[in-house]
Specification:
Layout lengths: L1 H4 L4 H4 L4 H12 L3 E4 L5 H4 L8 E5 L4 H8 L5 H20 L2 E4 L2 H11 L6 E3 L14 H10 L7 E6 L4 H17 L3 E6 L13 E5 L3 H10 L2 E4 L9 H8 L4 E3 L16 E2 L4 H10 L3 H18 L2 H17 L17
Parallel strand pairs: 1-2, 2-3, 3-4, 5-6, 5-8, 6-7, 8-9, 9-10
């Protein structure tokens, strides 16, 4: 589907959008720091950058690694797109003064795949606006269920996503496999992903695209979340949404990738098969366990994944980089190994 691939070809086709490029170049002229949140535009704008400017690659994932999972290398068009992805990421990463990665796992993968040096990379996790809404209590949860006409006697488990390949696979797994095995659970598939899947099970509610207020209402009504992701890189932002509102989440290791929980049981990680998910979701019929995992999830967000704190930290890092950007760098280092 061309819609799913258009971003990957932007560096080849973006010259057709001269108004966009002209606006971007004008903005770059006035900037001290230029941040690329994706690599696609960089090849078209590289010549507009000054050596005096700090260039940041704010990566969302390790694009070459991710796209290799999603594209078919036997298809000549998709193989060419994949080569283009690798080249775009390499060019930007090589030029960047600083690469921000979503997780330590991505830092290591950038080094392995592209050989970017560790000293130009820092972890800047994805997050969520954690203090925008109050935590839903049992009363507000019951009210939300009534408004949305959900069966209050059943456990409600929610998944949300855009119409993106890995999300579609996860949503179809919920609709085809989990729903057929768990008639005692109401499954909600929210977001644009629902526009590309279908379900024959009455216990599956597909909302379609929703706005932020609707999203918050559905999250308040849910008792738990499910995230059966089978591929991906970076971190799964929906996990932060679930955890921020204290939803105990059943996920795969890929769905939980890059999220540091320490000693907290902030989620249930299980194998990507029906039996494992059914067993884990059944455990969440226990209200006490749901509350315990939900609290740990919320604590995890407050500790390390709240935008209100992450943004301040990144701002301080960029100020320091800019402050020291004019200092001369050594031409070489001298390392003297010694024995005893």
């Amino acid at each position: 589907c061309i819609r799913d691939r258009i971003d990957l070809a932007f560096s080849q086709l973006g010259h057709l959008s001269q108004n966009y490029l002209n606006a971007a170049k004008d903005a770059i002229k006035a900037a001290d720091v230029v941040i690329f949140s994706h690599p696609w535009a960089y090849p078209l704008l590289a010549n507009a950058l000054s050596h005096k400017q700090i260039v940041i690659y704010d990566s969302q994932n390790v694009e070459g690694y991710l796209r290799a999972q999603l594209l078919d290398e036997k298809n000549t068009t998709e193989a060419a797109l994949l080569r283009n992805v690798v080249e775009d990421v390499y060019e930007l990463g090589y030029r960047a003064d600083l690469i921000l990665a979503c997780s330590q796992e991505d830092v290591s993968r950038f080094n392995r795949v592209y050989e970017f040096p560790f000293d130009k990379m820092r972890v800047a996790p994805n997050g969520v606006m954690a203090f925008t809404h109050e935590q839903p209590d049992q009363c507000s949860k019951a009210t939300a269920k009534r408004i949305l006409k959900l069966d209050e006697s059943k456990l409600t488990a929610i998944f949300i996503g855009s119409p993106y390949g890995p999300n579609l696979d996860a949503a179809q797994f919920i609709s085809d496999s989990l729903a057929g095995s768990m008639p005692e659970v109401t499954f909600v598939i929210a977001g644009g992903v629902g526009e590309r899947i279908s379900s024959t099970h009455r216990i599956v509610i597909i909302t379609g695209s929703i706005d932020e207020d609707q999203k918050h209402q559905w999250f308040c009504a849910a008792d738990s979340a499910v995230n059966p992701m089978l591929s991906g890189s970076g971190t799964n932002i929906k996990m932060f949404d679930f955890m921020s509102l204290g939803l105990p989440t059943v996920t795969t290791a890929i769905g939980a990738r890059g999220i540091e929980t320490g000693s907290q049981q902030a989620m249930i990680i299980c194998k990507p098969n029906v039996d494992s998910f059914v067993s884990a979701i059944n455990k969440l019929q226990d209200a006490g366990l749901r509350e315990s995992i939900g609290k740990e999830a919320r604590n995890c967000i407050e500790d390390g994944y709240a935008w209100e704190r992450i943004s301040h930290q990144i701002g301080s890092l960029l100020r320091q980089r800019y402050k020291h950007s004019g200092q001369p760098k050594p031409l070489f280092s001298v390392v003297i190994p010694s024995y005893e």
